[in-house]
Amino acid sequence: MRNSSNIMKKKLLNIAIPATVENLLQTLVGFVDTLMISKIGLLAVTAVGVANTLLAVYLAIFIAVGVGTSTLVSQSLGKANPDRAKEVVAQSTVLTFFVGLCFSLITLLFGKQLLAMMGATKEVMRFSQEFFYLVGGTAFLIALMTVFSSILRATGDAKTPMKISVLVNLLNIVLDYILIFGWGPIPALGVVGTAIGTVVSRLIGCLLLYRKINQTMLKFTLKDIRTKSNFRPLINLSIPAALERLVMRLGQVVYFGLIVAISAKTFAAHTIAGNIESFTYMPGYGLAAAAATTVGFSIGANNKKAAREFGFLAVKYGIGIMTVFGIILFFGSPYFARMFTADSQAISKIVIALRIDAFIQPILAISLILTGALQGMGDTKSPLYSTAIGMWFVRVLGVILFSRVFDLDIAGVWLSILIDIYLRAFYLTYKFRKNLS
């Protein structure tokens, strides 16, 4: 029994640790990119930020296709049906490429209008268009890289996507530095250089991931892709996952607007607190990826007991790790705040936000991980419902009630987030148990 428990722990951690490292690295690279772009000027930072807001919506759709793919692949492998898994990989490659191509065309045809809708001014528009047309115009690369990584993780191989992500992100930093500021005969290209560096590194990432997939049992050819097959199961899983991501993104736009209406300083403090917090939930996302794969494999093998054990073991690890991060946030908040600003009022607001967030961390682990576990078993609707209610009713109404009516300022914002996460955790725990009963 103890040996079985150790095997389960090893399987979980072999996926969770590389996935966590990959997420952490991408976050760090984002900070480095922003730092380099800031040397061009604040207009460039704003321009890239506006474009990246739109690209985040694209990414949400691609991640959703990845969720559907990894669910079907892990379940097929659990059923010892590699031929079905191979078929899913071919299907998802076709679907991903055409979805990505659609977003590429939307960018090239309507990019200026989309940026204007996001509030880009004339001064910002020039920089935004240069970046958005290049990066968004090759959206199919983002799509393929996202789904290829999901395919490998579904087989239990999380180390390869991590290694390739390390290489791609390091290459991105080097290319960005050379192309933004110039080097030798290479001229300084500014924001265009950032976009070129991003596109080239993603192209290399796609090729490396595709090469690795073709070294596994899931190897597929162009003939496999041309084979007529039923895409319905993949689409049925991907659509709720896509809606869940879109509901979250659109909800954030609304409640961010409510925070801006409180005061510019409150929004700045909220943004800084969110940036600090972004590092703490990386283990939660890593364990969510591990839960999705192991639970999906167990469901495919018709072993509900193992699925339950994998899900709750991941939750146990998540609560432990994120509780430690919560304690660090609570006591370290004044020091973290001073790293970003010397404004005493802003520091006070950031500290309040992070100390409330400290109590959110362990419950956030449950919400993140059980979302992954439910998606792994093929239930992509429950996370959609919890996100829609939590974001649009609890958070939006909470900010209005606590921050505007009761005048609790930033405390009201983060209390709304706390209530949302707690309610989601209870609901997702109930659904996970019910699905396995």
Could you explain the architecture of this structure?
The protein is an all-alpha fold and 437 residues long. It folds into two domains: 2-229, no CATH class; 237-435, no CATH class. Helices cover 86% and strands 0% of the residues.
* Structural class estimated from helices and strands: mainly alpha
Residues in helices, as a percent range: over 70%
Quote the beta fraction: under 5%
Give me the strand/helix succession: HHHHHHHHHHHHHHH
Please, how many helices? 15
Biggest pleated-sheet summary:
none
C-alpha Rg (nearest Å):
22 Å
Tell the overall outline: globular
The total strand number stands at 0
Weakly predicted, low-confidence segments: none
Q: What is the mean predicted local confidence, pLDDT?
A: 86
Q: How many domains comprise the coordinates?
A: 2
Cα separation of the termini: 22 Å
In short:
With 437 residues, the chain is mainly alpha-helical. The protein has two domains: 2-229, no CATH class; 237-435, no CATH class. It is built from 15 helices and no strands.
Draw up the topology in text.
Layout: H1 2-38, H2 42-78, H3 82-117, H4 122-136, H5 139-154, H6 159-181, H7 191-213, H8 222-226, H9 232-262, H10 264-277, H11 282-300, H12 304-338, H13 344-376, H14 381-405, H15 410-435
Helix pairs in contact: 1-6, 1-11, 2-3, 2-4, 2-5, 2-9, 2-11, 3-4, 3-5, 4-7, 5-7, 6-7, 9-10, 9-14, 10-13, 11-12, 11-13, 12-13, 13-15, 14-15
